[in-house]
UniProtKB/TrEMBL annotation:
Matching PROSITE patterns: DM10
Protein name according to UniProt: DM10 domain-containing protein
Pfam families assigned to the protein according to its UniProt record, in alphabetical order: DM10_dom (PF06565)
SMART domains: DM10 (SM00676)
Region (Disordered): 1-30
Domain DM10: 75-180, 217-323
Compartments it resides in: Cytoplasm, Cytoskeleton, Cilium axoneme
GO cellular component: axoneme; mitotic spindle
Main location: cytoplasm
Alphabetized GO MF terms: alpha-tubulin binding
Signal peptide coordinates: none
């Protein structure tokens, strides 16, 4: 094996004459001449485009001037336009203004359309289509859409969608003017009607007093309840025992901590699902968090307990919003002596049913009656047209409308409720709903 000496390796070093003629790096790295904008590649410096040779357009019928098809720097050059489309609808919820970015690629006469992302919208955004030749509407002499067809203040048809061009960038404006086109002044993008209405809603359409300060449901409701205990060791006297009740809204479980004097802090009932008192032939069910509120009797394993107040401010604000003013802190002892009423509604009916009419109804709906169903458990409203006979259901008008912003007390004859843009006057309640509403107005319940 032969080894090269140090003196032999010096022969590979270039001489001073070679360095002066070619430099230290015969093939220096070229600096970046392109930039990225909105996911597309553009020429970084407009002066570089002027240094390349120009060639006539491939479209023989177009006499707008030379086009940079063979220029190396123009391989990724593109004309950029701002445009919008208008979707017609009956109201501002359907009538929309959508903003787009149109890029025309000069090297192959293709077009890319992107839709910028917008917050709080119900449809997808992003790329509509990428680098495609778009067929022209009138294909005689010019089969595809050309850059000469794009100008500020004009409409362009791309795959049966009309885009209104409102503005362009500086490179696009200078390119079109150099090739003999007169570029119009920029136009303002119109605002979306839904966004305008939403921005002006608090001033033009204030919320109802019952919905002005809506409070979300807390994870736990805290009440105070009392019970007359006649099964104690005090020789038959009925001892009033007070408890703090914790109702967990996530799983509808209940826990009781005693607050009676000399028994403070003792656990009376651990967190458990409390069975609801039902008839023998009725399937078993547990209490739900909406079953319990001040002024209601509950059955705790055959112990009738009266809920008389909210134990914290968070629970009090939420219950006032949902059911009105229900504070029984100054209840009389006679309520405990009388006990729960014999025909008590431990829980509101699953469905509250009303007969109603539309306020300021349009001509096509004038004179019609409707049937309104309020699902107490799911907090949903369904409205259907009334059939030929009274209290019969016809065609569906509204289905599964969220009514969580309404309290149960708002569903009563004589009240006017608004769902979307329609307002309904509750005229009459069915017999079962009427019995429940009358029971809520009894002195024992109050």
């Amino acid at each position: 094996m032969s080894y090269r000496s140090y003196e032999d390796s010096t022969q590979d070093v270039p001489t001073e004459d070679i360095l002066e003629q070619f430099g230290s790096d015969p093939a220096p790295r070229r600096r970046h001449q392109l930039k990225y904008k909105n996911g597309e590649c553009f020429v970084a410096e407009e002066d570089l485009v002027q240094s390349y040779p120009k060639q006539r357009s491939f479209h023989h019928s177009c006499n707008a001037g030379p086009l940079l098809h063979e220029a190396e720097a123009a391989n990724s050059a593109a004309l950029s336009f701002d445009a919008y489309t208008e979707e017609d609808g009956l109201d501002e919820e359907v009538h929309r203004i959508r903003i787009f970015k149109i890029n025309y690629h000069l090297n192959d006469d293709t077009i890319t359309v992107n839709e910028p992302f917008v917050d709080n919208t119900g449809y997808l955004h992003g790329r509509i289509f990428r680098r495609q030749k778009v067929p022209a509407t009138n294909r005689i002499g010019k089969p595809y859409v050309h850059w000469s067809d794009l100008n500020v203040g004009s409409d362009v048809n791309l795959f049966q969608t009309i885009y209104r061009i409102t503005s362009c960038d500086g490179f696009t404006r200078s390119f079109l003017e150099e090739h003999g086109m007169k570029v119009n002044e920029d136009e303002e993008l119109p605002e979306d009607p839904w966004l305008v209405r939403r921005r002006g809603a608090p001033r033009t359409a204030p919320k109802l007093p019952d919905q002005r300060e809506f409070i979300n449901r807390p994870p736990m409701l805290v009440y105070r309840c009392c019970w007359l205990d006649h099964m104690n060791d005090f020789h038959g006297c009925r001892m009033k025992r007070i408890f703090k009740m914790y109702v967990y809204c996530t799983d509808h479980t209940i826990a009781l901590i005693e607050e009676t004097k000399e028994f403070e802090g003792q656990l009376f009932l651990k967190r458990i699902g409390l069975p609801f008192p039902v008839q023998p032939d009725v399937p078993r069910r547990d209490y739900r968090w909406w079953d319990i509120r001040p002024g209601v009797w509950i059955d705790v394993f055959c112990r009738p307990m009266f809920v008389f107040e909210c134990a914290n401010d968070e629970t009090k604000s939420f219950i006032r919003q949902q059911f009105g003013e229900t504070d029984f802190g100054n209840y009389s002892s006679q309520i405990l002596e009388n006990g729960p009423p014999p025909t008590q509604y431990y829980n509101s009916p699953a469905i509250l049913k009303f007969r109603c009419t539309m306020v300021d109804a349009p001509s096509i709906l004038y004179g019609l009656h409707f049937i309104l169903y309020y699902n107490v458990n799911r907090r949903l409203v369904n409205i259907a047209e009334e059939g030929r006979k009274t209290w019969t259901e016809g065609r569906v008008f509204l289905k599964d409308v969220d009514a969580s912003t309404f309290s149960e007390n708002q569903f009563a004859p004589g009240r006017i409720l608004q769902f979307f843009k329609w307002r309904f006057n509750l005229v009459q309640s069915c017999s079962e709903t009427d019995k429940y509403l009358r029971w809520k107005q009894t002195p024992n319940h109050k």
